[in-house]
Design a protein that fits this description.
The structure holds two protein chains of two kinds. Chain A is an all-alpha fold. Chain A is built from 33 helices and no strands. Chain A starts with a helix and ends with a helix. In chain B, the strands form two sheets. A four-stranded antiparallel β-sheet of chain B has the order 2-3-1-6. In chain B, strands 4-5 form a two-stranded antiparallel sheet. Classes of the chains: A mainly alpha, B alpha+beta. Chain A: One of its GO terms (biological process) is nuclear-transcribed mRNA catabolic process, nonsense-mediated decay.
Chain lengths: 798, 152
């Protein structure tokens, strides 16, 4: 008995021991991870002594925790590119103490590079390559082996069968690691370096630049050239080369350890085969570098690095990375931006503003929500109230000065951002500086900017506020008071056809009449389409007109009132014997829907926001179809407002709804397929959430049919829109040609800009139908100006 | 720093259900409560601002229970959680009608929740506050009543 007790106790002890050892191990691993991740952060000791200490700690634990340490280091190399030189130094020190460890690390990174290239993770690949390059500086990798790798990557430039964006990705990666290793290569392998650069130069020269015009924020290169990103980096590298590869920005802790590191033995990077191009591969879209400021814009103090200085590239890349990492937490993002290392050496606020605006105006689409940038700028102004607001104001002045040649997408975003920004600062602005705009044609970009800003500002506040805040010279720009016009009011109704019926209809709906009663009243109206023949007209436009007018008039108090009014005549409860009025009066008949939309416009022409909201409601309620809305936008009745922003708000909203619908159905089909096949594999994870019955093959087929039908609608929508664009633009070009006028009018530029905007904002969806578009619409015989818009879009992926 | 999409410590005392259920609803909610809104802010202004974070499904204006007029809070409901999170990240703490508005997760609008719970019909906070706020009816209710009571 006592022995049993003893055994039990020893079992208990050993299992506790085992547990304790496991938790001890986990604790040590966590501690190592924390030490590695945090090296280089603010500390009481110097970076060099921290690195030395950490290298010793890691070396002691290498035998027990090698794989963990390898993993943490390789992750840090890729996720913290701004600390590249810190981690390469650490790896260098470890390699000096433990050659095998260094070799295993190099192998691990080589694997990481290969995987990144295969998975089209171009940024990761770039950072691995950069890390390799810097490891040459730390004597971990031989220069020859790096040069070999760089040449292998550059060989993709010779491949004529793959898209240019593919070789661009490789050349960009090679160029972007030269700031780290350029000097070393220049000192030890000058001829090889020159050969490398020659290859790159040949490639850069022969690249096409068809994609560039569509990606420029400004058409003009004055005052600052807007360069394509690869051209810009090439120019920056060339200048670095002219400066003997001396750069002052990158901190290099390994310099202090040179005596230790140069004793280390170097490794070779395992040879890499570049994964071939595959049609499913995705590549980064090219972009044009956004240049707003130069050194003359900044006051006395630290100088803004020139456009072709490598410092400009390095700092901008770092700032963009901060945005990428912290954009979901604006307070932290602002704090990290303002705490930029070396902030005293540069005009930090200017560089931050330029980078944030670069992202806001990025083409084809910004990476994050526009309001992300807007709220971030407000946060920056809050944290730095003495300097940030002034820099931002200066930026706005410059943007306004150069707005004449601004891309239409960017003009819209500028308007949207600026009105939002003003709404957070009581709409206070130096409007007097812009008085000259009042003399301009209202379609001039400057005048349009002010008109649209005041419109959006009104939406965020109210009419009187905006009317009062601007100088009287801007009265011509102040939007109309957003009121509705009701044709069948007490005074006007008696003269209108059907006016008496309209008044009774109004009274009926006010008294909460049911749909049957409403329909009864409407049925009293004659049908103007009846032409005396036997044929029954497909709908009664007078019914639609009067019903729309009365309904919208009754709901005119607010959006909610209008929505409620529409909803009332939409749904019928299952047991109701009442007709669904919209179905009866309008239904799928496109002409009837057009009458409805036109009448809605008649009522609410002065309230643009209401038109946007109502169209949205009509689409969501399936009263109007996307195709009809598109045709309505391009109709003669809407020509007057055609260049107003709200029209495009409506059209893009329409396209987006269609896109979302397709995406939703696609997701449902994919999920259904997975559930269908997932059950076969008896996966234990599947019973966690899915109590739904497995979808049958039949159900999936039906879903796929539905998806195909909606995709056909989507294709049709794009075809309609593009066709209409081609028609009105061609008409304009022909007419100008006949009349001997210059075609390049304001209207023309806005319209062609709107065409480009469709390609930009919806490029992923349009891409699906690219083939059809080039066969049916954007054919070679089309006017080159119109065809250009299509070609620029195609060039994004070629 | 706490995440901008984290739950606050507020829990609706009138919520029907367990704390656990309420928390689960909050964590999956697409509805936000927005406070410190001016009495004069219109639905149009609200849609204009909140649509910038994503498509708004609906907005319910908070009303004075007796007067049925806006009393300074609203519910915003988005179609998807991501958009509601964007609202918490980018709109919470910024201005509307010159006032800093505050957004917080809500378990979901239920009929009846659009009314203020203060004794005089508005929000409870407007009963007790002592400052003068022209966008929220001037002085707090208790202060207002004190000033019209005759001196004894």
């Amino acid at each position: 008995m006592s022995r049993r007790k003893f055994d039990e106790m020893s079992d208990y002890d050993s299992s506790r021991d085992r547990k304790r050892r496991r938790t001890d191990a986990v604790e040590i691993e966590d501690r190592l991870e924390s030490l590695i991740i945090r090296v280089g952060e603010k500390s009481t000791s110097s970076l060099e002594s921290n690195l030395e200490g950490l290298a010793s700690v890691l070396e002691a634990d290498i035998n027990n925790y090698k794989s963990k340490i390898l993993k943490i280091l390789s992750d840090c190399a890729v996720t913290m590119p701004e600390k590249t030189t810190i981690y390469t130094t650490l790896v260098g020190l470890l390699n000096a103490k433990n050659y095998n460890f260094g070799g295993e690390f190099v192998d691990m990174m080589a694997k990481k590079l290969k995987e990144a290239l295969k998975a089209c993770m171009w940024r990761t690949a770039r950072y691995v390559l950069r890390f390799f390059s810097d490891m040459v500086n730390c004597h971990v990798i031989s220069t020859n082996s790096l040069l070999q790798l760089l040449h292998t990557l550059l060989d993709t430039a010779r491949d004529d069968n793959s898209p240019q964006v593919r070789s661009d990705a490789y050349v960009y990666a090679v160029l972007s690691c030269l700031p780290w290793v350029g000097r070393e290569l220049y000192e030890k392998k000058e001829q090889d370096l020159e050969r490398l650069l020659k290859h790159i130069e040949i490639y850069i020269r022969k690249r096409t630049r068809k994609h560039v015009p569509g990606l420029r924020v400004w058409r003009s290169d004055r005052p600052h050239p807007q360069e394509e990103y690869l051209d810009c980096l090439w120019a920056q590298i060339c200048k670095l080369r002219a400066d003997m590869w001396q750069e002052k920005h990158i901190a290099r802790p390994y310099v202090a350890f040179d005596s230790i590191l140069c004793e280390a033995l170097q490794h070779n990077i395992p040879p890499l085969t570049v994964p071939p191009h595959h049609p499913d591969n995705t590549y980064t879209f090219p972009w044009v570098v956004f240049r707003l400021f130069d050194y003359t814009d900044c006051p006395e103090g630290p100088v803004l690095p020139g456009a072709h200085s490598i410092e400009r590239y390095l700092i901008e890349e770092h700032l963009h990375n901060i945005l990428r990492e912290h954009h979901t937490e604006r307070k932290q993002c602002a704090a990290v931006l303002l705490d930029f290392p070396l902030k005293h050496k540069i005009p930090l606020e200017y560089m931050i503003v330029e980078v944030v605006l670069a992202e806001l105006f990025h083409l084809p689409t910004p990476k994050y929500l526009e309001i992300c940038f807007g709220s971030l700028l407000i946060e920056l102004c809050k944290l730095q109230p003495a300097t940030m607001p002034q820099v931002l104001a200066q930026a706005v002045e410059l943007l306004y000065d150069r707005i004449d040649t601004m891309n239409v997408c960017c003009h819209d975003r500028f308007v949207s951002w600026f009105s939002y920004h003003l709404s957070n600062f009581q709409f206070k602005w130096s409007w007097d500086d812009w008085l000259d705009a009042a003399q301009l044609d209202p379609m001039h970009p400057r005048a349009k900017f002010i008109i649209e800003v005041l419109q959006r500002s009104m939406r965020l506040s109210y009419h009187q506020r905006i009317a009062e805040v601007v100088p009287e010279q801007f009265d011509c720009f102040v939007p109309a008071k957003p009121e509705h016009i009701f044709k069948y009011g007490a005074e006007t109704a008696p003269e209108m056809e059907g006016g008496e019926v309209a008044q009774r209809l109004e009274a009926c709906i006010r008294a909460k009449g049911n749909p049957t009663e409403v329909l009864q009243i409407l049925r009293e109206l004659p049908n103007p389409l009846r032409d005396g023949t036997e044929d029954e007209p497909s709908f009664n436009p007078l019914q639609v007109q009067i019903f729309t007018q009365v309904l919208l008039h009754l709901g005119s108090k607010s959006f909610s009132h209008s929505f409620a009014g529409i909803t009332k005549f939409l749904k019928t409860s299952q047991n109701s014997c009442h007709p669904q009025l919209f179905e009866v009066l309008v239904g799928p008949n496109e002409e009837a829907q057009m009458v409805l939309l036109r009448e809605m416009y008649e009522v609410w022409a002065k309230h643009q926001q209401m038109l946007v909201m109502l169209t949205d409601k009509l689409l969501r309620s399936h009263i109007a179809s996307c195709a009809t809305v598109a045709n309505w936008i391009f109709s003669k009745e809407m020509q007057h407002d055609f260049t107003r922003s709200y029209i495009w708000e409506i059209l893009h909203g329409t396209i987006r709804k269609m896109n979302k619908h397709v995406a939703r159905l696609q997701k449902e089909v994919n999920e259904a397929r997975e559930r269908h096949s997932g059950r076969d594999s008896d996966d234990s994870s599947s019973d966690e959430e899915d109590s739904r019955p497995r979808p049958t093959e039949e159900e999936i087929e039906r879903m796929e049919e539905k998806l195909e039908a909606v995709q056909a609608d989507q294709k049709n929508l794009f075809l309609i829109i593009f066709q209409r664009f081609i028609m009105i633009l061609s008409e304009h070009l022909v007419r100008c040609d006949t009349d001997g006028r210059d075609f390049n009018t304001h209207w023309y530029r806005w319209t062609i800009g709107r065409l480009q905007e469709i390609f930009m904002l919806h490029n992923t969806q349009v891409e699906r139908y690219s083939q059809t578009l080039s066969t049916l619409l954007f054919t070679q015989d089309l006017d080159p100006h119109i065809l250009d818009a299509f070609n620029q879009f195609v060039a994004l992926r070629s | 720093m706490t995440s901008s999409v984290a739950l606050s410590s507020y829990r609706d005392q009138h919520f029907r259900g367990s704390r656990h259920l309420q928390e689960r609803k909050l964590l999956n909610s697409t509805t936000l409560y927005v406070g410190n809104v001016s009495f004069y802010t219109t639905e149009e202004q609200l849609y204009e601002l909140f649509n910038r974070a994503g498509d708004v499904k609906r907005i319910v204006m908070g009303l004075d229970k007796q007067r049925k007029t806006p009393c300074g809070f609203i519910f915003v409901e988005y179609f998807c959680r991501d958009d509601a999170e964007s609202c918490m990240r980018y709109i919470n703490g910024t201005r509307l009608d010159d006032r800093i508005i505050r957004c917080d997760w809500d378990a979901g609008f239920v009929e009846g929740r659009q009314y203020g719970r203060g004794k005089t019909g508005g929000q409870v906070r407007d009963e007790y506050r002592t400052d003068y706020d022209p966008g929220r009816g001037g002085y707090g209710k208790i202060v207002q009543q004190k000033t019209i009571l005759p001196q004894s």
